[in-house]
Design goal:
single chain, about 40% strand, 2,3-Dihydroxybiphenyl 1,2-Dioxygenase, domain 1, five-stranded mixed β-sheet, alpha+beta
Length: about 130
């Protein structure tokens, strides 16, 4: 039986640029994003440094060997169903990197959220507005 998949509706970077998220080694980072998080590589570049653009559900992010600090960056993903997204990540083999669910308020909006820390150090928050 195939696991249900949650859809990413939007992505906002923690810092400046979701298309330029810092990693030490793009090639080493890619398998996690493809096998665990369900992204696919769209393009790769060597100039001005190694980078890759990833896509999932029409939402793109970029990983780049740009000298930035991964532990200080990542993205907030708005998803259509936070519990389905959580179950999908677990079915894809993600274990200790997952946080429990919590409710957080950003501005005037409340979200049901959980966090994933990638092996490269980038942090991702998956969130859904409560119904």
């Amino acid at each position: 039986m195939e696991t249900a998949k949650g859809s990413i509706k939007q992505a906002w970077p923690y810092q400046k640029d979701k298309m330029n998220l810092p990693v030490a080694d793009v090639e080493a980072a890619l398998p996690f994003y493809e096998t665990r998080m369900g992204f696919r590589v769209v393009t790769r570049h060597d100039i001005p440094y190694q980078s890759a653009i990833l896509d999932r559900d029409g939402i793109q992010i970029g990983l780049a060997e740009n000298g930035g600090e991964p532990t200080q960056d990542g993205c907030f993903f708005e998803v259509d169903d936070v519990e389905t997204a959580f179950a999908e990540l677990k079915a894809n083999g993600l274990t200790k990197e997952l946080s429990d669910f919590s409710r957080q308020k950003y501005g005037e909006t409340e979200w049901n959220v959980f966090f994933v820390v990638a092996p490269d150090g980038l942090c991702y928050c998956y969130g859904q507005r409560p119904n």
